[in-house]
Amino acid sequence: MKLNKIQLKNFRNYDNLFLGFHPNLNIFLGQNAQGKTNILESIYFLALTRSHRTNHDSELIRWGAETMSIKGEIEKNGTRVPLELQLSKAGRLAKVNHLRERKIADYIGHLNVVMFAPEDLELIKGAPAIRRRFLDMELGQIKVAYLYDSVRYNRILKQRNIYLKENFGNIDPIFLDVLDEQLVDYGNKIMITRNNFIENLEKIANEIHHSLSHGVEDLKLIYEKKVVSDFASELKKARSHDAIRRQTSIGPHRDNLQFFVNGIDASSFGSQGQQRTIILSIKLAEIELIFQETGEYPILLLDDVMSELDNIRQIDLLETSIGKAQTFLTTTTLDHLKNLPTELQIFNVTAGNIKKSEDQ
């Protein structure tokens, strides 16, 4: 899978930008706050219709504009496919091959990406919601059914929570039975898919982590489900509690993902170096897992992470990804980059102006 070109209109600090990309490695070189990360964010948004940096879509639209658009051309399975996303106050509009997709779920999955950024350490140190979002975003790319199940589950969950809040002390058990039956149906599918994904991810990530740690560390991923045994029965037992709290306490919306190195919880006791190695192992494993699922390597986005990795981890990252995944990398300097391939394109970024470097 390759991204051949992209066009941005009123995205962040870019009013109208067109870029063609190298099929192997693309480096965006410049000082901080010049617009390098915005390019990677636009590619991420083109793939997933969501930003990795903000939950507020209005922040993506250039100051003074009312709409923004991102157009890209991908090459997948030997076929070139144009993609387009438009964002306005009315919401999102997504097109594949110039045809509008009625549902965003039908759009996601055409372009697969793996993002590696400094804030990814929050995947280990942050709240469980960050890890659930990670699972949802990664699975949504490669499992269409998961995306549909997740959308339906969240819609019913919202409906159930609203009902609990608005009917405090006057709950209709029959109506709640109807909602619970649907919640259990989609929730069980979500938990099964998540469990399988985590098991497969762990197998690959542990091999990588074992290698990166020179054979002295083993990585284990634990899927911590809020549902212990039977979702339907546990949901029913929690009904009186939910009625008092006016929210749903049981289900995959409460799940968590934990990381253990040699049996020790990495979020509480892991060093920052270990945590970076875990994230690197997870991201490299994602690349392989997406390839196994789709038959194509995803786009790899590296946002200012090379300076945070030592030479050994840099080399492993570059050797593992480049030549497989088309890679987009932002950096303030080339001095710390080792063993770069000869086949690449460097873009110089200054105050939102981007020029191809003629000196490669």
UniProtKB/TrEMBL annotation:
Listed GO CC annotations: cytoplasm
Primary localization: cytoplasm
CDD domains the UniProt entry points to: ABC_RecF
Gene3D superfamilies per the UniProt record, alphabetical: P-loop containing nucleotide triphosphate hydrolases (3.40.50.300), RecF/RecN/SMC, N-terminal domain (1.20.1050.90)
Domain RecF/RecN/SMC N-terminal: 3-352
Subcellular location: Cytoplasm
Binding residues for ATP: 30-37
Function, as annotated: The RecF protein is involved in DNA metabolism; it is required for DNA replication and normal SOS inducibility. RecF binds preferentially to single-stranded, linear DNA. It also seems to bind ATP.
Protein name per the record: DNA replication and repair protein RecF
Originating organism: Lactovum miscens
Gene: recF
